[in-house]
Amino acid sequence: MMRTERRRSSRTGATYPWIVESTAMVNQYYFYCVDEDFGPFFLKFCSYFPYNAKLCINGHEYLKRQLAKRRVAFEALDNGIKSCADLQLLQRLSDGLTAEKIDRLLRKWLRRLPHPFPARDRAAGYRYQLSILQAEFSLTQVLDHPVTGRIFFEEVIRENLDIGRPSQVSLVFDRRINRRTPGRFRTRVITDGVVPSLHVDYRKSRIKQYHKEGEALRTETTINDTRDFGIGRRIKNLAELREIGFAANRRLLDVERIGHDCFIGEAAFQDMQKPVVVADQRAAGLRFADPRVQGLLHILLLFLLVQGTFRNKDLREHIASLLGMKPSQLSPGRVTYDLRRLRLHGLIERIPKTHRYRITAKGLRTAIFYTHLYNRSLRTGLAVISPHAVNVNLPVARSIRAAEAALNTWYDQEKIAA
User: Is residue 75 exposed (0-12), middle (13-18) or buried (19+ Cβ within 10 Å)?
Assistant: First the structure.
């Protein structure tokens, strides 16, 4: 806050007041109100110069009031909407919560409540102007099967513990990040009781995701400093800030969905196994269990996270190490052959007028599916059920042996009956 201190002129020796930025323990006066259009909110006034004030509103309460005034049936979910009889109207009302309406709410209640600026001060031009101290943009996705939704969210956390890395944060917030970017880049999993939540930080802003009320997936971006995104703090910037907040929510969900909605259908899977011909160019198939194919897909994911694009030389260096070779033992022509396979199958694309490549959306989904299924299911599963397994008493191994014994017994019984 701003305080005054006494200073002395070096020329005249007279004292004069000077305004400095400082801290102090002062009284705060809270007014908890209920508005016809906005529902419950509060205004807080500071009792010390320059008499700062804080207005706190909840957009979901605004929606509830508007729906109730229009007699539209809805069901609340804490500070959210679980269901509504007119979803299109609900969306229009959400889009209609503008900076002008929030400013009118403040002016309306400043006329009713006592505050530090009397009429003569307002006549002299001393007026409150709204700025954005904190803005939260949330998306609530209600789940048909809440129990399954909880399992899904726990899988989301497990699969996205690296979402806080600078490369991933830059994708989610659509911001360029370099060594001089302030703040810590991390993913935090916070457990409040038995409800976990996922937190992704960017400077002073944060995305939080959790299983709300056991019935919905809640994704909310909280912006604590608009200047993190090159936007001013005045309330007139709310519309631009809204675009950033909701876009961050959608991008986070897109990143997570890639890991959980990448199932390849039978036709698509078989297309990957077969040779492909595109505009008289032919390329061999990408066989699922081929070590070279698995290595290529691993490297595509590595390039996505680290630098985004790559060249023939980059691919050559990485694939050689995965195959237990030196880069000099791998000819550029062999790498060109791999690049053509990946490109004709639609997994990568060449950047026009360059010798660089980047992964496509199809390539990203395929790489995640192939590598996860191969490493987490096929290899580990075969190791568990192998006759030469190191630990034959693992629960999975015991269950498989029990299932095998039950099937053999059933076969024998059926044969005897016949």
Answer: exposed
Sign of the Cα torsion 284, 287, 290, 295 reads positive
> Which structure tokens are listed for 232?
């001013």
d(CA 307, CA 322): 19
Q: State yes or no: pLDDT of 180 exceeds 60.
A: no
- Tell me if domain 131-261 and domain 266-379 are identical in fold: no
CATH of domain 266-379: 1.10.10.10
Structure tokens at 97: 């919560």
Give tens-digit pLDDT for 248-266. Answer: 888 787 767 665 555 556 6
Q: Are the beta carbons of 130 and 109 closer than 8 angstroms?
A: no
Cβ atoms of 173 and 205 within 8 Å: the answer is yes
Residue type, 372: H
- Domain range summary for the chain, segments of one domain joined by +: 25-129, 131-261, 266-379, 386-417
Render pLDDT for 361-390 as a digit per residue (tens, 0 to 9). 888 888 888 888 887 777 777 776 666 665
Taking the alpha carbons at both ends of the chain, their separation in whole angstroms is: 91
Cα 242 versus chain centre, distance: 15
Closest CA to 250 of 222, 220, 225: 220
- What CATH number labels 131-261? 3.30.530
Residue indicated by tokens 């990143």: 255
Pairwise CA distance, residues 302 & 95, whole Å: 39
Write the pLDDT tens digit of every residue in 285-304: 888 888 888 888 888 877 76
